[in-house]
Fold this sequence. Notes:
Elements: H1 4-11, H2 15-23, H3 30-42, H4 49-55, E1 61-66, H5 73-87, E2 91-96, H6 101-113, E3 118-121, H7 128-132, E4 138-141, E5 151-154, H8 156-169, E6 175-179, H9 185-198, E7 209-211, H10 216-229, E8 235-238, H11 241-253, E9 263-268, H12 272-275, E10 281-284, H13 287-304, E11 311-314, E12 317-319
Parallel strand pairs: 1-2, 1-3, 3-4, 4-5, 5-11, 6-7, 6-8, 8-9, 9-10
Antiparallel strand pairs: 10-12
Helix pairs in contact: 1-2, 1-3, 2-3, 5-13, 8-9, 10-11
Amino acid sequence: MATIRDVARYANVSTATVSRVMNRNGYADAETSRRVKEAIEQLDYRPNDVARSLFKGRSGMIALLVPDITNPFFPELARAVEDKTNLNGYSFVLCNTDNDVAKQLNYLNALQQKSIDGFIIVSSSLTPDNMQSLQVPAVALDRVISPSMPSVTVNNRSGARQAVDHLKAIGCRRIAHVAGLEYADNAAQRMRGYLDAVKQEDWFDSRYIVSGAYHFNQAQEAVETMLSNNPDIDGIFAGNDMMGAGVLHAAASLGKRIPDDLAVVGFDGIALSETVTPALTTMTQPIYDMGAKAADMLINQIETADSTVMTEEFNVQLAERESTLRKAATNEQ
Ligand code: RIB
């Protein structure tokens, strides 16, 4: 069955233009209208009632809600969503929510009043109940909100385990973890991956876990205290790159050499992880692909009224950099 995207491709116009010609709202010149109508006829395109109702009075607009635009991870994610939505003829709106439930619900309600076509949401505070009242399609990105909501995430738990196994492989004997937001499901998954790798070790102790809440300053302060109290720690897995940078600063303030006294691995793969000194080894998330995939999933829901709950889990990749490049042990040492 032909979709509106097939019609748009055939007529060489955006889906928003097809919508305008179909609903006769907004401008489309005679030639464009002719091409669209020809495409509809040639492809025998018949929008079903739900798809048509979704298009009646739609705005051609998609919104992305993120919890913290000051964290470089989210602008990188937003770039991908904006590119993909614009390519498909939608305008794009970015909303910063501070993970505040009232603020998120206000955005969701206000934009639905403006006939928003759909939402892509990064949130660790909205609940499945909050999503029940949503009248338009939505996709959860980066963090799962509800099992009945399409989502795009990464292999947080196995990726975290891989990070700790890398620290073990380069000779670390006491490995700590700086955890992200305690109520963010992906932070909890990364902590589980750390525990999978260390809980059988005779040296493991809960004092080797501190919270950095995904923030640089909180991580730096927590790690300075932890390293001062536990000088035997020689490896740290940080649950995101901003906290990884905080670990590097904490080590410098204590006179610890990276990586020989302390090796560090982060998580995300934001550009900052390459520009800090020493460059941070990290588990890189395919940030652009995640954003693009979420946009594709949402647009498919909007245009075909396909309500299949799709989930996509990407794999993170280890990017080895200076913060773990220890000189290979030699016989003389
Ligand atoms: O750095 C921000 C963190 O929050 C990232 O790890 C990303 O996964 C998001 O959840």
